[in-house]
Amino acid sequence: xxxxxxxxxxxxxxxxxxxxxxxxxxxxxxxxxxxxxxxxxxxxxxxxxxxxxxxxxxxxxxxxxxxxxxxxxxxxxxxxxxxxxxxxxxxxxxxxxxxxxxxxxxxxxxxxxxxxxxxxxxxxxxxxxxxxxxxxxxxxxxxxxxxxxxxxxxxxxxxxxxxxxxxxxxxxxxxxxxxxxxxxxxxxxxxxxxxxxxxxxxxxxxx
Length: 207
Hints:
Blueprint: H1 6-14, E1 30-34, H2 41-59, E2 66-74, H3 78-91, E3 100-106, E4 116-124, H4 129-137, E5 151-156, E6 161-164, E7 170-175, H5 178-187, H6 197-204
Antiparallel strand pairs: 1-7, 2-4, 2-5, 3-4, 5-6, 6-7
Helix pairs in contact: 2-4
């Protein structure tokens, strides 16, 4: 049986920065949306989850080929790195299939510290999408469980979109060209993160 190579598949579609640190800033055709608003921890979490689900249901409408690449910093053996990650996936109700791929590479965010980033990638059922979004939104909330012990880069080779709900505050959406992602810029314009709005307007606003 041929070994799965999800890394190569993603890099061929989105480039070698597909799972980069600071994803939004590594891609031209990219959006950064604000998820959580003001209010209590619960209010912020519920809004973040609702917005993430709304966007992902739109972005991945009509397709079932969904993949995830889970990544976090790794300063120990791969086995020690994977143990808490796999535990968090089980707590979120996510079963990792046998067809999976793991790898590691130097940490481009903090190269002088000698750390690495580790990755676990596999295909998943669309019915599990909400579990990844919940785990991502809950990641920085100590009061809400379960949560994921990694960032979840979710993508579809068919739609050629990649979504990173990096925590409760926001999500990055990566496209392969302006034509495909511009409708999302207009539809979710009110949700664009103001800090990066000028950069997005420069790419997608009418001239």
